[in-house]
Design goal:
single chain; about 325 residues; mainly alpha
């Protein structure tokens, strides 16, 4: 009876009780960290640091964000070329719709819903698989670079900074093991899925032979694009630190890589995303920046540019598509 009651009212319970409690908890925690930090500069001083370059500052950040989504579009276009070629504009709309649906789902799992929106119904399963595969390759790049940065951090910096007492050998061994598994799945994903498909583990027939869709050269091209996307994301943070007159060195870059690594593997959902980014940013960057308010502002700005605005654009695209469908007009 209790289980049936929970199933019936779980949405009300999660949205009306759990969500507000978590928001209040994380918000209060951030507020206390800012309030108790004697090193925090006020917002006016933060504004003064970028006032003389604000137009240049915003323009470059917007350009970097546009470049990132252009790369996302090229990646999706290359993936769909294997089974249903799409033009650049339709691929771009698919990317923004993916951002919209991922914005409202836990772990950003709804990304595939937007990506497959313009595909034919018979290609929905293939589109979902290729979306997951593209996301997996991005995670592989993030893990590899993040793990290298983490290794450098532990080798060159004092472990007591994070109050850790970990054997470096085990860190390297576990990292190599995880990366080996990731790389094997990346290289043999199509073959593995084909085998599972032949064994009847899927109710829907994905494809007779997925391995034929992507050859090794195409896989490496995909990895190169994901690497370029990763570099562009790192450039966002580097540019912000540069404009705020912080020294750009390998230590700061390694912290950014570790931050992105943690961000990719920590569960997030909707409004929690910005709170989690802020908490994580303080944990990682506070040893270098010594300004919690600035860290929160930076994480919030990147979130708005890379998550909120794209989801907002996707929302307007979704509204337009439904409007055109309602009046029987052609969707371009």
């Amino acid at each position: 009876m209790v289980i049936q009651f929970f199933k019936k009212y779980r949405k009300i319970f999660l949205n009306g009780v759990v969500l507000p409690i978590l928001i209040i908890y994380f918000g209060q925690n951030l507020y206390q960290q800012i309030k108790n930090d004697e090193r925090v500069d006020n917002l006016y001083h933060l504004y003064q640091q970028i006032k003389h370059i604000k137009f240049f500052f915003i323009s470059i950040l917007v350009f970097i964000a546009i470049l990132r989504f252009a790369i996302d579009t090229i990646v999706w276009k290359k993936l769909t070329n294997a089974f249903e070629p799409q033009c650049f504009s339709k691929s771009l709309k698919s990317v923004f719709l993916g951002e919209l649906f991922s914005f409202n789902t836990p772990l950003r799992a709804g990304n595939f819903i937007g990506k497959i929106y313009f595909l034919k119904k018979e290609n929905f399963i293939l589109g979902t698989f290729f979306t997951l595969y593209g996301n997996f390759v991005q995670k592989l790049i993030t893990f590899l670079i993040g793990f290298i940065a983490l290794t450098i951090f532990f080798n060159t910096m004092n472990q007591n900074l994070l109050n850790l007492n970990i054997n470096k050998f085990w860190i390297v061994l576990i990292g190599i093991l995880i990366f080996s598994i990731f790389f094997f799945v990346f290289y043999k994903a199509f073959y593995i899925m084909t085998l599972l498909n032949k064994w009847g583990l899927f109710k829907v027939n994905i494809a007779p032979n997925l391995e034929s869709y992507f050859n090794p050269i195409q896989k490496l091209n995909l990895m190169a694009l994901c690497l370029l996307r990763y570099v562009v994301i790192i450039e966002t943070y580097i540019f912000i630190f540069y404009c705020l007159n912080y020294e750009i060195n390998y230590y700061l870059i390694s912290l950014i890589c570790i931050f992105l690594l943690c961000l990719y593997f920590i569960p997030s959902f909707f409004v929690f995303d910005i709170l989690i980014r802020a908490e994580l940013g303080i944990l990682i960057f506070d040893h270098y920046i010594h300004n919690k308010l600035l860290i929160i502002a930076m994480c919030s700005l990147v979130w708005v540019l890379n998550i909120f605005f794209p989801a907002l654009i996707g929302f307007f695209i979704f509204i337009k598509i439904n409007y055109l469908k309602k009046y029987g007009k052609k969707i371009s």
